[in-house]
Write a structure and sequence with these properties.
It is built from 15 helices and 25 strands. It is α/β, with parallel strands linked by helices. The protein folds into 2 domains: 250 residues, Aldehyde Dehydrogenase, Chain A, domain 1 (3-Layer(aba) Sandwich); 184 residues, Aldehyde Dehydrogenase, Chain A, domain 2 (3-Layer(aba) Sandwich). The strands form 7 sheets. A 7-stranded mixed sheet has the order 17-18-19-16-15-21-22, with helices on both faces. Strands 12-11-10-13-14-24 form a 6-stranded mixed sheet, with helices on both faces. α3 crosses α4. Bound molecules: nicotinamide-adenine-dinucleotide (NAD).
């Protein structure tokens, strides 16, 4: 870690130790930390987020910038150059060249592993600085940001380890030949990510795509563009050959769309909203290029009457309020068996009122702000819609009245009952700390209601009846099912959605296969000419 060389402190009664202790100079040229509306520190350093690298050259788009806002208080967290479609052309040309002419794709997988390990190691070395940047960029609580940075490092280490042990398939001979199926890269892969898990979502795509031998162009969300640039810098510093990984901070409608449509891009890996995914898949379908789509969800979370209720309660609370509900797998539709419904929901409301909403750098905060004012308005709009559909808002339903949080985009934990599963608030992804509760009668009833959605990303259930858990798990149409736990994830366990929640699987070996195409090679061993 390189110590800060130049700090321009624009000061003002600093309330305590600076949140930055060990930041690398390259973390930002124009990166401000504010308290309330007051800017308390500006870092001025040689490396600058107001330009981005395409290979060894720096570009600043057309001089336009993207401003990252700190959701904790609405102040400026950073200013980042905004890429243009012309930058897409440059980045794709360089990536194609790197893919064809750099040895990367021809290296043995275990040789590629060396660089991937180094990227993971460097992410871990810069953990604290990346965590802080992540916190200001996304507004997520520090601990969550730290987990995301740790996970990003793990993805590189994990796919490095897979590279060490990767095997192709040999088929048993059925004549005088032998045959094998080899995993080959696609070429240039476009990775497009949302704002809710910066660096982690990016590493989840970049690590396996690079491990498989591809070149990657990453377009992060315009809401949270900063960590992607840091990841690109780290990849370069770790020795990844030029052009194999480029981060282009830009908007979806120009840079994202230009990437998907670019003839030089041979595969698209997208995480984001279902409608965006549909638009991307339409273009990719016309171009006949493969897509991996990780999309939205409206996950059912089921509590059966025989469940361990305190455990279920804790699972339901963390399942909805973690990341302030800005999680694709948030348990947003709570189904509680009718015999325990009232008692469980009353307790849930009491517990929801106790959730500590606070600034991301407050260690006591359990829930931080939403990503933007516009998003909070959208969430609030859904709560109003639920009211108009006949829903009863049992708690929350507004911003907190704590003056310390008045400048940020906070929204209280909200529980709504009285709606049918067919109501829009029960069918559409709200992506905030809003939980709808619905009673059910029996297993058949809850399976039917749980599946009555266009989404199929995840589902959870709490029960002590193992046979029932197995039956229900097999019947629910979702890519991940949690039994007596929720939001558990494993780097080696496949992740992805059924129905409108996506196509393809990330993580584990499935993640590597997503970025590979299969080539079968036959070796003739016959000693006579082939007959007609
Ligand atoms: P979004 O769909 O608005 O944007 C996602 C990304 O797509 C951004 O980088 C955006 O710039 C880009 N984009 C927008 N229009 C585009 C276009 N026409 N062509 C190419 N790129 C385009 O989603 P968001 O609001 O950033 O993220 C929230 C959504 O992401 C939620 O629906 C959430 O469920 C989903 N999500 C899914 C998963 C998963 O693994 N299934 C994980 C995280 C988030």
């Amino acid at each position: 870690m390189v110590p800060v060389r130049e700090l321009d402190l624009v000061l003002s009664g600093l309330p305590g130790p600076l949140p930055w202790s060990n930041i690398t100079p390259s973390l930002s040229a124009e990166f401000c930390v504010s308290k309330g509306q007051q800017r308390i520190m500006t870092m001025t350093t040689p490396a600058n987020l107001t330009s981005f690298s395409i290979g060894s050259q720096q570009f600043d788009g057309a001089g336009q910038t993207i401003t990252s806002i700190y959701p904790g208080d609405g102040s400026v967290a950073g200013v980042v150059a905004r890429a243009t479609p012309a930058d897409v052309d440059r980045a794709v040309a360089l990536a194609q060249d790197a893919y064809r002419h750099q040895p990367w794709r021809k290296l043995r997988p275990d040789q590629r592993a060396t660089t991937l390990y180094e990227i993971g190691r460097r992410i871990s070395v810069e953990r604290d600085a990346l965590t802080t940047m992540q916190m200001f960029d996304s507004g997520k609580p520090r601990k969550e940001c730290q987990n995301m940075v740790d996970n990003a490092a793990s993805y590189f280490r994990y796919y490095a380890a897979i590279c060490e042990t990767w095997q192709n398939e040999m088929t048993s001979p059925r004549g005088d030949y032998f045959s094998m199926s080899l995993a080959e890269p696609f070429g240039v892969v476009a990775a497009i990510t949302p704002w809710n898990s910066p660096i982690m979502a990016e590493a989840q795509k970049a690590a396996p795509a690079l491990a498989a031998g591809n070149a990657v162009i990453l377009k992060p969300s315009e809401e949270t563009p900063m960590l992607a640039l840091e990841l690109a810098r780290i990849c370069t510093e770790a020795g990844l050959p030029e052009g194999l990984f480029t981060a282009l901070p830009g908007y979806g409608e120009d840079v994202g769309a230009a990437l998907v449509a670019h003839p030089g891009v041979r595969m698209v890996s997208f995480t984001g909203g279902t409608e965006t995914g549909r638009a991307i898949a339409t273009v990719a379908g016309k171009r006949l290029i493969p897509v991996g789509l990780e999309l939205g969800g409206k996950s059912p979370h089921i509590v059966f009457e025989e469940a361990d209720l305190p455990m279920a309660m804790a699972g339901v609370i963390s399942g909805i309020y973690g990341s302030a509900g800005q999680s694709c797998v948030a348990g947003t539709r709570l189904f509680v068996q009718r015999s325990i419904y009232r008692e469980f929901v009353d307790e849930l409301v009491a517990r929801s009122r106790q959730v500590k909403v606070g600034l991301p750098d407050d260690p006591a905060a359990q829930m931080g702000p939403l990503i933007s004012r516009a998003h909070r308005d959208r969430v609030a709009g859904y709560v109003d819609l639920a009211r108009s559909e006949g829903g009863r808002v049992l708690c929350g339903g507004s911003a907190p009245d704590d003056p310390a949080l008045a400048q940020g985009w906070f929204y209280l934990p909200t529980v709504i009952d009285g709606l049918q599963n067919s109501a829009r608030a029960c069918q559409e992804e709200i992506f905030g700390p809003v939980l709808v509760t619905i009673p059910f009668d029996d297993e058949a009833d809850v399976i039917a209601q749980a599946n009555d959605t266009v989404y199929g990303l995840a589902a959870g259930m709490w029960t002590r009846d193992v046979a029932k858990a197995w039956r229900v798990a097999r019947e629910i149409e979702a890519g991940s099912i949690w039994i007596n736990t929720y939001k558990q994830s494993h780097i080696a366990t496949a992740f992805g959605g059924f129905k409108d929640s996506g196509i393809g699987r990330e993580k584990g070996l499935h993640g590597l296969r997503l970025y590979s195409q299969v080539k079968s090679v036959f070796f003739g061993l016959q000693d006579k000419p082939l007959g007609l």
